[in-house]
Each structure stands twice: as C-alpha cells, then as structure tokens.
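ok so for the tutorial part 2 we go from a plain amino acid sequence to predicted structure tokens. step 1 is just haveing the sequence, like this:
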Amino acid sequence: MRRRRFAFFLSLLSEVKRPARILDVGGTPEFWQLMGLSQLDDVRITILNLQAHPVTGPLFDSVAGDARDLRYADRSFDVVFSNSVIEHLGPHFSDQQLMAKEVERVGQRYFIQTPNRYFPLEPHFLVPGFQFMPVWMRTWMVSSFDVGWYKRIPDKTAARREVESVSLLGEKQLRILFPTADIYKEKLLGITKSFVAFGGWGKTSHRFTSHAG
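step 2 — the prediction. this is what the tokens look like for a chain of 213 residues:
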C-alpha cells in the first residue's frame, strides 16, 4: 500500500519543473531510498525533524525544526511532503491546524498522509478500537504491556504522555485542516485505512481524488 501511494506521489511529481525542492516533515532518508527516489538526480530533499539526523549523499539535507513553525519563507519548496506525522503533534487540534497552515504557506504543493481514525485497528498500538478507549485505560495498557510498536512504559506519566501524543484524524477533520485539498483514500477490505490530503498540483490531480487503494 505504501509503494502504491508513493507511485501516486511520483506521478504527481513528474509534472513538477526540475530541479525540484522537497521538504519532508518528519521523514527519513531511508524512506526515500526504499521508495527508489535516491536514483533521481534532479530533486533535493530537506528532511525536517525535532532533531537533525546525519545524512549522506547529495540528495538530502537534514535540519532541526518544528512542523508547527517552519522557519522558511512563503513558497520556499516545490513540494511539502509528510507521511504519518500530523497525528503525532499531541492532543490539541490547534497544533494540527498550525502544521497545516505552515505546510500550505511554505509549499507550492503538498502531499500529507495520515491514518484514518475510524479504521478498526489503531495503527500505532495495533489494538482494535484503541483510539476510542478512555485515556486512563490506554495509559494502563501501555504502562503494563508491550503494545503494538511500543515497548512497555512503566512510568504512568510517561505512558500517558505517549498515549496523548497520538491524535488520529477522520476525513471531516482533515478537510477542516486542508479545505482546498483533494483527498486520496487508501482502502483495505473496503474500509478507508488512511488519507492523503494533496493540493496545488493543478487540474490533472483531480483524477486521483477518492482513489481506492
């Protein structure tokens, strides 16, 4: 599914004038290498995380920054890309709104993926319906067991902080964040598993709206 999504992204990217500058909010060089973009020599990818990570080769730059306050001028990048990050800004929708505004300000185009809150299996903790459980119950589970991708966090304060750091979005919320975006839907067994909000790509992008992966 991820490779199919990336093929869709590359089909959009093929229409962007070269050389292309991409800002990846919250990504890694390994992701782009795995998807084969390291074979291209006409793009430059700036990878932004809370802490900069070592990178090698001419394709990548790595910088420290905050998705809610991108320290770049308006329309500095041809594309702002982000994969499963906007749901990790904490429990406040206002933080997700800040990121969305910054993405639209800094990028001439954007491609923002996020899991669907209403998919039955929560994608981080891998427990069906985990996102709908009370915070105290989720905290107890994370502090008592290894849950999904998370090793047990014995300290309950730290466990609660981790639980509250993930705030999944539904389609309605995503459309509030990106009101002019098209929405690409990835489906598994007929249920939308994740969304991509993408905008600024021109009229040709509309043929992908509501695509079922």
